Amino acid sequence: MDCDLDGLGFPCRTDGRLDPAKVAEAALRHYRATFGATGEFGDSPDRWAGSCWSETLTQEAPDACLDACIALLELKPTNAEIPYFAAGPLEDLVTQNGPAVIDRIEAEAKVNPQFRYLLSGIWGQSRTDPDVWRRIQAAIEAGPHMDDDPRTPQGSTRPLK
Asked: Is 125 helix (H, G, I), strand (E, B) or coil?
């Protein structure tokens, strides 16, 4: 992968290898530092995680991006924090590389209600492969759902087939 963070000593790596859990941990810390207390945008030393996750991983390492999404849930983000990650890295992953990861998305959604909740918060039907969108709709059908916004898989007009 091309890394814009090599000047920071590759903060996303553990033992020289990409560590998706480390990216998720830093992204959640950054979210909490910048939005948590005040609801206003700020800065934190973990800001690198956003660009690593939403730009590099979604485009160049879709499986690692999905691993980071799953690792995020193990950190127990609040229901107020989850939409930020649904509308960011997971949505970007689905719209940019959905066909490459849909099998893994379906498998995780089948066994992980927290992941279904996260997945239910993505938008992007018009930018997502139609087959991938239908499969996501089916994968989250059992819930729980974030809401029934018409831009989400459970609220969208593209029917389940």
From this structure: helix
